[in-house]
Write a structure and sequence with these properties.
Number of strands: 9
Shape: globular
Structural class: alpha/beta
Distance between the termini: 38 Å
CATH topology: Arginase, Chain A
Order of helices and strands: EHHHEEHEHEHEEHEHEHH
Bound molecules: zinc ion
CATH architecture: 3-Layer(aba) Sandwich
CATH superfamily: Histone deacetylase domain
Largest sheet: 7 strands, parallel
Number of domains: 1
CATH class: Alpha Beta
Strand content: 5-15%
Oligomer: single chain
Helix content: 25-40%
Radius of gyration: 18 Å
């Protein structure tokens, strides 16, 4: 099993401002988790390159790319919680470049799977908007690269605790990309309602699974086994990309979910199962959020073990009555576009 891990010193050069939770130590924490678990030597570590203008412009407006580029060497606030520093542009280029390159290598068979420790994260960045600690939408740029290379169907699974409004916006009318997000709701950024399902030819190719605060491993696994996996099988993607946010970890300072490292490992296992059909196992995970350093270390290691082919952990437990109550609602929302959910 050839698994690539994409890390770069440049990821740590983005300074979001003093006291900001989206800090360079986050990448160090994931890296520490991987090394302490003795997994580093089993991974390949390709050199990370910048994304090119051509790659970025497939999903971002030219003015957006120019606006981020214009922050080079300066400190520029975009909104209350998103500020670019002198090296943010370089880091954002590398963050997107890593996921594009990982995807390319997986599609070409040079790697089986990959994990990108990309920073800054990307899933809140819209086609023309910097938002929520995100500048370029790393996973969306990689999905667009896959489409440009002739891949017909890309599944993006987003298990970050927040809704990936940017990824949703970018592919909202595109039936070639199925975007599936589980997220705490109601919560930042306020999007991700079940009724947001895509539009035009993309109708049915956006799936939102809003979950209540306090959801546990068992809650997530029920939703992923009962909804995400059957949906993935119906879509039969040729590539699976994962917005791997670790901020649903119990104890994350920004959110209120209760996932454990084992829970994250199990979710990664389901994402790989989703890649078992036409994707032939091709999967790329990219770091999004996650602000508890110990959570990042343990969850990052758990996910890496699964990518390396180890049996996913089984955290056990039983789902809450609230999640059991929601399952038929999730299915009902999917049924019009996905007939297998109407049975
Ligand atoms: Zn998040």
């Amino acid at each position: 099993m050839k698994v690539g891990c994409f890390d770069s010193p440049v990821f740590r050069e983005h300074d979001a401002g003093p006291g900001h939770p989206e800090r360079p130590q986050r990448v160090d924490a994931v890296r520490r988790g991987i090394e302490r678990s003795g997994l580093g030597g089993r991974l390949e570590w390709p050199l990370v390159r910048s994304a090119t203008a051509v790659e970025l412009l497939r999903v971002h407006a030219e003015e957006h790319v120019r606006a981020v580029e214009a922050t080079e060497g300066r400190t520029v606030p975009f909104d209350a919680d998103t500020q670019a520093g002198p090296r943010t542009y370089a880091a954002a280029l590398h963050a997107a470049g890593a996921v594009v390159d990982a995807t390319t290598r997986v599609l070409e068979g040079r790697l089986d799977r990959a994990f990108c420790l990309s920073r800054p994260p990307g899933h809140h960045a819209e086609s023309d908007r910097v938002m929520g600690f995100c500048y370029f939408n790393n996973v969306a740029v990689a999905a667009a690269e896959a489409l440009a290379r002739g891949v017909a169907r890309v599944l993006i699974v987003d298990f970050d605790v927040h809704h990936g409004n940017g990824t949703q916006e970018i592919f909202y009318t595109d039936p070639r990309v199925l975007y599936v997000s589980s997220h705490q709701f109601p919560f930042y950024p306020g999007t991700g309602l079940q009724l947001e399902q895509g539009s035009g030819p993309g109708r049915g190719y956006t799936t939102n699974l809003p979950m209540p605060a306090g959801s546990t491993d068992a809650d997530y696994l029920m939703v992923y086994r009962e909804i995400v996996l059957p949906l993935a099988r119906a879509f039969d993607p040729e590539l699976v990309l994962v917005s791997a946010g670790f901020d649903a970890f119990g104890g994350d300072p920004l959110a209120g979910m209760q996932l454990t490292a084992d829970g994250y490992g199990a979710l990664a296992g389901i994402c790989l199962e989703a890649a078992a059909g036409a994707a032939n196992g091709r999967a790329v995970l990219a770091l999004e959020g996650g602000y508890d350093l110990d959570g990042l270390a343990s969850s990052g290691a758990a996910v890496t073990r699964v990518l390396l082919g180890e049996t996913p952990p089984d955290p056990g437990g039983s789902a809450s009555t609230e999640i059991v109550r929601r399952l038929p609602l999730y299915r009902a929302a999917l049924a019009p576009s996905w007939p297998s959910f109407s049975r």
